[in-house]
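note to self — DONT lose this again. spent like an hour looking for the file last time. sequence + predicted structure for the chain T wanted, 307 res
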Amino acid sequence: MRKSSARMKKRAYTAVIALAAWVLVSPAFPEEPAIERVIHLKGTTNTRDIGGYQTSDHRTLRWRQIIRSENLSRLTPEDFQQLEEMGVKTVIDLRTDREVEQSPTVWQGDHPPRFYHFPIGDAHNDWFNAQRKLIKSNRFTEEQSLEHMVEGYRMIAEEGPPSYQKLMDLVLDQSNWPVLIHCSAGKDRAGVATALILEALGVDRKTIMEDFLLTNEVGHSEKKAIVLSKERKNSGSGNKFSRGPSASAWFPIVGVRPEMLEAFYASVEGQYGSMDAFLTELGVDLDARRALAASLTMEHSERMMGE
């Protein structure tokens, strides 16, 4: 009995040691984010951090250095204070001139960041004109709105490079961090900007797409589509015989679908041959990518130490 009891104690001790060792090496624990991805602000529904994502060489993006958001015109004084406490140094606005004029950002705080306006698209170009006509008609299907948004991502690939080159110049300079990048809804132009940064860092396409689609959850896209559908059906605008677009028809306009980002990738590859070539065109060659990864990501051992 004594020998049996001793063996049981030894086995229990060994099991405890094994469990402790597993806790120390298991990736499930250090990869649990100590910081929330979503940044909760009263004046927006789609502000979030891109930190914590893994690169192909198993490094991790640093938290609170690159933030993506929708427009900042509705932020409260408390929201601005929260961003200041996070140390935001640089704000990059990708909206058109018209959007900025209609909803300007008036920073309410003691330590405003540096502002840069790099518009993507023009409010009077064919795509924006088509969007206004589509919405004004109050008669469109899900297929029509999706195709319109897919065409918008082709427009971004065509007209966006000059602005994205300026954006990447700022992102490559660590003295500008933390950087907040935004457009109007924080999903299309800012979404592509985020994808380009993650591509430059070597994050895989599946993760990039997951971050892109996170807008639907964080931005409450389904609820917004339902509200718009009800409002337009009750407004009496458009054709008097029209019941107004369904919520599913509104969804591609207020949310995101994989086809949108895929259209951007296809346009880039059609024009430049590859994403690597496109990034090089933006001034982010292999050396720049390595330098960015060295400063904007950390190794597993650093995560373990809580950095």
